[in-house]
Design a protein that fits this description.
Blueprint lengths: L1 E6 L13 E6 L2 E5 L5 H8 L9 E3 L5 H4 L2 H15 L4 E5 L4 H7 L4 E5 L5 E4 L2 E7 L7 E7 L2 E5 L7 H7 L4 E5 L4 H4 L9 H11 L3 E5 L7 H9 L5 E4 L5 E3 L1
Parallel strand pairs: 3-4, 4-5, 5-6, 10-11, 11-12, 12-13
Antiparallel strand pairs: 1-2, 1-14, 2-3, 7-8, 8-9, 9-10
Amino acid sequence: MHLRILGFNSPYPPPGGAGPGYLLEAGSSKILLECGSGVVSRLKTYCDFRRGELDAVVISHLHPDHFADLLVLRYAHHRNMLETGVAPLPVFAPAEPALERAVLEYKSLQVTTIEAGTSTNIEGFEFTFFATDHAIPCQAMRISHAGRTLFYTADTAYDQSLVEAARGADLLMAEASFLTRDKGANVPKHMTAAECGQMASAAGVRRLLLTHFWPEYDTADLLREAQEHFDGEIIVAANLLPVKV
């Protein structure tokens, strides 16, 4: 099981960057986790979605920084359906907020609701979903394939229930939206790099992947803060970086 980091910045991408987007691969199966601004422009380099190579898209929550480019991909895929005969693209996303979910209902997308406490098999990957502590309904994901496990926090405040859900994962992909100095009241409910390190240590994961950065941060500062709390390997998301789970 491999990840390709197509984008990792939030709430907006910097010049030459992209919002959250992670291409998950195993064998011939390819699933896109999140579809933020700029992700589609990078996707085709690694996945010929025009010929149906993209098997599904999974969206943790319906904030625009995580699904904005899905509104572009739906048009591209409709053209693909007309030209190459591929089927509608399966999309897995929460049901709420209703306004944002309604935008996803389009003829080239086959949308399925994801809910906390449920599991589903998507192209050989076993997904289990967990509610996060965020401003709108959001699902963390434990993803298993061929004996390897990825846990993706999605957007969340530090939550002990997610520590338990992530326990023993081979790779924890955690959102490091803040440095501790900048978190403040944190109304939107996100984690610091320090909290990512704390979660990785408490959950006993093998490796930690930091992502979802404010575009103006120096990633070296995020790494140093996480290292104060986790002794294992820490990977910092970078453009087009391949990561083995």
